[in-house]
UniProtKB/TrEMBL annotation:
Source organism, top-level taxon: Eukaryota
Protein species of origin: Haematobia irritans
Descriptive protein name: Putative e3 ubiquitin-protein ligase lul4
Residues that span the membrane, as ranges: 21-41, 87-108, 115-136, 148-167
One of the record's GO molecular function terms: ubiquitin protein ligase activity
PROSITE patterns from the UniProt entry: ZF_RING_2
Domain RING-type: 185-226
InterPro entries referenced in this protein's UniProt entry, alphabetically: Znf_RING, Znf_RING/FYVE/PHD
Length: 237
C-alpha cells in the first residue's frame, strides 16, 4: 500500500513538473513569437516609410539618375536607422539576440533561405527598375515641355506674370494693412487708424467709427481707457 501511494505521489509530482515545464516553454515561445512579430512589424513600417519617402523624393528630383538614386538610397537608410532606434528602445538586448537566433534557426533551412533570397532579389531588382522608370519619365516630361515652349507658352507666361504682379500691387499691400494690428481700427478691424482722441491721446479709431461713436452717444468715450473724449484730430499714419 505504501508503495502504491509513493508511486502515485511521484507520478503526480512528475506530471506537475512536466506541466510546469511545458507551460514555461509555451510562455517563452509565445513571448518570442510576439517579439518576432513586433520586430517584423517595425521593420515593415520602416521599410514602407522609407520607400514612400524615397519615391516622393524621386518625383521631385531634378538631377541625373545616379544622384537621384544615391539620395533616395540615403533617405531609405535613414528610415532603417530610425527602425534601429525604435527596436533598441522597445526591446532589450537579450530579446533582440533571441529573435535573431530564432530567425537564424528558421533560415537555416535551404528551402526557406532560397525563398528569402529570391524575395530580396525581386525587391532589389524591382525597386531599381521602378526608380529608373520614374527618373526617365521625369526627364522625358521635362524634354517634352522644353520642346513645346512656343509663342503660346511665352504669351501664357507673360499673362500669368502680369496677373501675379497686379495681384501683389493691388491686393497684398492692402491685406498687410488690414492684418497689421498696429495700424487697424480696434472697432471695425478693417480700416486704418486716423483719429487722435483727446485728452488721452490714443490713436485707436478710424473716422467712420469715431463718427458712429458720437452719433450713438451724446458723450464719446475712449474704448481703451474709458476717458471722456473732449476733442478729436485727424492724423495720417
Amino acid at each position: 500500500m505504501d508503495l502504491i501511494v509513493t508511486f502515485i505521489s511521484d507520478l503526480v509530482h512528475q506530471v506537475f513538473d512536466f506541466s510546469c515545464i511545458l507551460t514555461w516553454i509555451c510562455l517563452r515561445v509565445t513571448s518570442l513569437s510576439i517579439l518576432t512579430c513586433n520586430f517584423f512589424f517595425n521593420l515593415w513600417c520602416s521599410l514602407s516609410n522609407g520607400l514612400e519617402c524615397a519615391f516622393d523624393y524621386l518625383e521631385s528630383c531634378d538631377q541625373n539618375l545616379f544622384v537621384c538614386t544615391l539620395n533616395s538610397g540615403w533617405i531609405f537608410i535613414k528610415s532603417l536607422k530610425d527602425f534601429y532606434f525604435d527596436i533598441t528602445y522597445s526591446m532589450t538586448m537579450w530579446q533582440i539576440l533571441a529573435v535573431c537566433l530564432w530567425l537564424g534557426i528558421i533560415t537555416f533551412s535551404p528551402t526557406i533561405r532560397k525563398i528569402m533570397l529570391n524575395c530580396i532579389a525581386f525587391l532589389l531588382v524591382g525597386s531599381f527598375a521602378a526608380l529608373t522608370k520614374l527618373v526617365r519619365r521625369k526627364m522625358q516630361n521635362k524634354k517634352v515641355q522644353a520642346k513645346k515652349w512656343s509663342l503660346i507658352g511665352v504669351f501664357t507666361f507673360l499673362v500669368t506674370a502680369s496677373a501675379k504682379g497686379i495681384y501683389r500691387i493691388c491686393f497684398r499691400r492692402k491685406s498687410k494693412k488690414t492684418i497689421d494690428p498696429n495700424l487697424t481700427c480696434i472697432v471695425c478691424i478693417d480700416r486704418q487708424k486716423s483719429v487722435l482722441l483727446m485728452p488721452c491721446k490714443h490713436v485707436c479709431l478710424c473716422e467712420e467709427c469715431t463718427s458712429g461713436l458720437f452719433n450713438s452717444r451724446k458723450i464719446g468715450i475712449c474704448p481703451l481707457c474709458r476717458v471722456v473724449i473732449t476733442n478729436t484730430m485727424s492724423i495720417y499714419m
